[in-house]
Amino acid sequence: MRSLRSVTIQNFRLIQKAHVAFDSPGVYYIGGENTDVPHADSNMSGKTTYLNAITWALYGCDLNGSVITSTAIRNGEAECKVTLAFDDGVIVSRTRYKTPKNGLTVRLYVRSSNIKKAGRDSEMQRYVDELFGVRDIFLASHVFGYSDSASPFALRSDKEQKRLFDLLIDSDDFDRLCASTTKRIRDCEKKIAEADFSIASLESRRSTLNELLEKEKGFSSKRLFALKTKMLDALAVYKSAREKSKHADAALKSYRSKVFERLNGKLSKKQSELSDALISEFEKRQDVGIEIKSLRSRFEELEALSKSAVARCPLCENQISDEHVSTLLDGVKTALENAKTRAQEISEHIDTLQAAKTRCLAKSSVLEQRLERFAANNNALSHDTEVARATYRAAKKSFENEHAGKEGRIGELSCEISKASLEHAAQTKARKHLVAYNDLLMYIRNALSPKGIRAYKTEMILPHLNAIADEFSGRLFGDGTHVMYSTQKQLKSGDLAERFDVSIFDPKGELVCSPSAGQSMRRDIIHALSMVRLCNDIGKRSVHLLIFDETFRTLDRCGIETCIEELHGMSDELIFVAEHDVDLSVAFEHQITARRKAGRTSLIMV
Of 51, 208, 392, 500, which residue is the least packed, with the fewest Cβ within 10 Å? Predict the structure, then answer.
């Protein structure tokens, strides 16, 4: 716990310059003197201004929770400044500029053992909050004020009082965690929705792929059957052509070996014999021709000799007779005729041989033509066989390519289906984990909700708070009337609404629906003191500072004395009590007078 040791104020409203130091905790009465307006008594003297300066330095607002604007700067000055010093060396200083300085309208300076920093108040306020604990713009656990309200906390609604109690049970932390968890739940639900969409897409894709696979199998089977039928037909044609080609080859070989070669050999031999005979006959005819030519020459000689006067032998030159010449001439003539006859016979024989040779050549030509026809037929069959084989190979290749393509397409589709199935399984597993995680987050959010751990903490704290309120009620009311807290209210619908009620019950335990002004003020003071005690007990106060601004005006003298006695009993607190009643000052050891003179307020420690 840290205590305030000094307050330094410069140009804050009526206070031009003031410095107040506190040697020890205690109750300080703040009175006022207004010499500028005598009939105003202590009003408008600057008492509340002093208290507002303290709350502004800490929280940037006055006792009512209103933001301090540039109107708080004293007329004619450029800035106002309030500095608070604490017993552990912590200093908080807040400055308001009439015109921005270095881009700042309000400058907040904080110095402690861990930090020494100045900057924009909105950025630096968190350091102040860390130093001084619970803060609320309407209520801090250690600062209380009163300004024209029945509540010493300047709380104007049950919602604001519930806000205080939530701060005391760390509701902000729960709210932050609950909001963070809710955000995670939304993100998780979004991921679950995305997973559902992905799973549905994968199921649709897998169904489409299965349909395509079935269609591909059916279409490929029909096409493969047609190609296989075509291939088998081509194979049958090829086999038939090959068999025909084989038979033709065998027939050609058989004809060549058994007929052509044998007959052609005979014909060749006969042709050779005929050629030899023809040569012999030609030689004979040539000899006969020579003989005829010789005989004809002799005949001519003999004929010429027969016509001459004296016939002489051409060999011996002897004279021969005409009879002998005539005999010789006949003999030569006979021999010539015989030679011609032989020549004629030889010519006829040659013609016969040539005719025979021509017939042999014709037969040989016929054999060769038949052989050529066999060879041509065999070549045609071989060509048909090659064509049939090429056709079969093309059909077989088409079948194999189609079969391979079918296997490839089916394999690709099966692979895609497997991938889609694996991804579907992975997404389903991920969704299952997301659902489990979302259930866990919802469980955590329920635990962090007002009906979860906070409700448990409330149930743990509320009896202690009611016990404290009973203790203060017994001393301040004294007649059995007591204050009781409740955090829930049953609605007409039967539901329970979260709220924070501070109610008064009479000695019989019945609710006081229309309390008097004195009862209301006692309730509010009990509420203030009970909350201070509770904050101390649960370690939610970092500063011993209480402020009561015109709190006792609706209390009777007995109630005021009881309240002052209670405040004096809080020896660890630095308490400011600002009141108009001057007679109350005798009840306080420490007094501060706010004296206004010539439009300027000075603070005097008495």
Answer: 208
What distances in angstroms separate CA 285 from CA 335, 343, 349, 580, one per listed residue? 15, 6, 10, 188
H helices present in 44-120, as ranges = 47-59
At CA 598, angle to CA 595 and CA 603, rounded to 5?
A: 25
184 or 157: which leads in pLDDT:
184
What H or E segment, with its residue span, contains residue 127? helix 121-132
Higher pLDDT, 20 or 275: 20
Length of the chain: 606
Task: Calculate ∠ Cα 410-414-420, nearest 5°.
Answer: 145
Please work out, in degrees rounded to the nearest 5, the angle formed at the alpha carbon of residue 149 by the alpha carbons of 144 and 152. 20
Is residue 108 within 8 Å of 118, Cβ to Cβ? Answer: yes
Q: What is the mean pLDDT of residues 560-585?
A: 83
- pLDDT tens sequence across 524-538: 888 878 877 877 777
Residue 82 confidence class, pLDDT cut points 50, 70, 90: very high
The amino acid occupying position 177 is L
Taking alpha carbons only, the member of 600, 604, 572, 580 closest to residue 590 is: 604
**By three-state DSSP, how is residue 478 classified?**
coil
In three-state secondary structure terms, 507 is coil
Per-residue pLDDT of 382-436, as tens digits, reads 888 899 889 988 988 888 887 787 777 778 888 888 888 898 899 899 989 989 9
Q: Are 144 and 546 in contact (CB under 8 A)?
A: yes
C-beta separation of 89 from 112 below 8 A: yes
Bridge-based pairing of strands 574-578 and 545-549 is parallel
How far is Cα 394 from Cα 388, in angstroms, rounded to an integer?
A: 10
Calpha distance 101→379 (Å, rounded): 115
**At 468, phi and psi to the nearest 5?**
-65, -45
SS3 296: helix
Give SS3 for 336. Answer: helix
Nearest to 479 by CA among 505, 501, 502, 503: 505
Contact between residue 196 and residue 432 where contact means Cβ atoms under 8 Å apart: no
585-591: long-range contacts (C-beta < 8 A, 24 or more apart)? 585/29, 585/31, 587/29, 587/561, 588/27, 588/28, 588/29, 588/564, 589/26, 589/27, 590/26, 590/27, 590/28, 590/29, 591/28, 591/29, 591/30, 591/31
Q: Which of 7-21, 128-142, 264-278, 548-562 has the highest mean pLDDT?
A: 7-21
Tell me how far apart the alpha carbons of residues 316 and 313 are, in angstroms, rounded to a whole number.
5
- The helix (run of H) or strand (run of E) holding residue 577 is strand 574-578
List C-alpha distances in Å: 66 to 48, 52, 329: 13, 10, 188
As a whole number of angstroms, the distance between CA 398 and CA 206 comes to 31
The stretch 93-109 carries a mean pLDDT of 88
State the pLDDT confidence band at 156, using cuts at 50, 70 and 90. very low
Take residue 466 and report the two structure tokens written for it. Answer: 């009611």
